[in-house]
Amino acid sequence: MAAGGVRAVRKNAPPREDVLVAAMATIAERGLEGLTMAGLGRQVGMSSGHLLYYFGSKDELLLQTLEWSEAALGTRRRALLARSGSARERLQAYVDLYVPEEARDPHWTLWLEVWNRSQNAGPQERERQASIEGAWHRDLVALLAEGISRGEFRPVDPDRFGARLRALLDGFSIQVAVGLPGMGRADILAHVSEFLDEALVS
């Protein structure tokens, strides 16, 4: 593309966040099958070619949308964990934020798609995914360590327990996100709460 053409594209393109907001809104309304580069371009006033110029591929668009969504969730998570109250109460708030609200939850729908596509992702993309996962893990480990130091939780290894808890949450959350019958969000929250009381408090 000529230099003048590049400047024109940059001048006329909407802010990057507008594209990511539109992508997430489309996923929420129509699912991933409804998200196409051409359709997204129409929403934000760009051609699919211009979108590909900025993002390089649909995989990159999805990963950047996930990173944007996770940044907002991270802000909420840190605010929840900074509240006053017992470590057990804040751990429950962490779980509530982690588990999807309902079937086809857009954030979890996006996560599942990025996970699926990661089979063919390069090392840099995998590192970015690991960074998102790592933020959830570090916050959980810090909260567990705090609860242990206060005598609220049993003296478990925070890192190992956190890894196991997140694996449990992932498994349950996928069931909600894909809409498997017989296991709703309320059922899962009850299961996890019972597990935490048995493993950490009793």
UniProtKB/TrEMBL annotation:
A Pfam family matched in the record: TetR_C_6
Top-level taxon: Bacteria
DNA-binding region(s), chain positions: 36-55
HTH tetR-type domain mapped to chain residues: 13-73
Entry keywords, A to Z: DNA-binding, Repressor, Transcription, Transcription regulation
Protein name: TetR family transcriptional regulator
Native source organism of the sequence: Streptomyces flavotricini
Lineage: Bacteria, Bacillati, Actinomycetota, Actinomycetes, Kitasatosporales
